């Protein structure tokens, strides 16, 4: 047996459903705004002491990665990981004598910005 609802109860229920739909729309809008803000930030994050373009944070340690000869590049952890992935991929196509070194993050000298 179903309980009988008054006209006022039905109107209140419809109002609650309408409000829920409105709130869901507001949440969806805010979610989209946040996604847009995050996408806008991607690529804009830059550690000022890093020479790379794949920074994940604007602060943090940077290390000196040898690039050959007397050359070095100063990289944050995110850029270092990107570089090492690229070097591993590239090493698969190079002869044993031409391969890039793959030093660990811990083995690299910490760069002290002046």
Describe, in plain words, how this protein is organized in 3D:
This protein has 114 residues and is α+β, with helices and mostly antiparallel strands. It folds into two domains: 7-42; 62-110, no CATH class. It is 44% helix and 13% strand. It has two helices and three strands. The protein has helices spanning 7-41, 77-91, and strands at 62-68, 71-76, 109-110. Strands 2-1-3 form a three-stranded antiparallel beta sheet. β1 and β2 (71-76) form a beta hairpin. The protein is elongated. 9% of the residues are buried. The mean pLDDT is 83.
Shape: elongated
**Alpha plus pi helix count:** 2
What spatial order of strands do you see in the largest sheet? Answer: 2-1-3
Secondary-structure class: alpha+beta
The rounded distance between the terminal residues' Cα atoms is 80 Å
Strand percentage, roughly? 5-15%
Share of residues in helices: 40-55%
Unreliable spans are: none
Q: On the 0-100 scale, what is the average pLDDT?
A: 83
What can be said about the biggest beta sheet?
3 strands, antiparallel
SSE run: HEEHE
Count of all domains? 2
Radius of gyration: 27 Å
Count every beta strand, where a strand is a DSSP E run of 2 or more residues: 3
């Amino acid at each position: 047996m179903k309980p009988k609802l008054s006209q006022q109860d039905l109107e209140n229920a419809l109002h609650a459903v309408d409000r829920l739909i409105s709130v869901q729309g507001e949440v969806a809008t805010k979610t989209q705004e946040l996604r847009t803000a995050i996408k806008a930030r991607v690529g804009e994050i830059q550690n000022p002491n890093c020479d790379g373009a794949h920074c994940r944070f604007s602060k943090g340690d940077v290390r000196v990665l040898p690039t050959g000869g007397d050359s070095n590049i100063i990289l944050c952890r995110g850029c270092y990981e990107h570089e090492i992935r690229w070097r591993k991929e590239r090493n698969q196509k190079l002869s044993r004598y031409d391969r890039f070194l793959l030093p660990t993050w811990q083995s690299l000298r910490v760069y002290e910005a002046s």
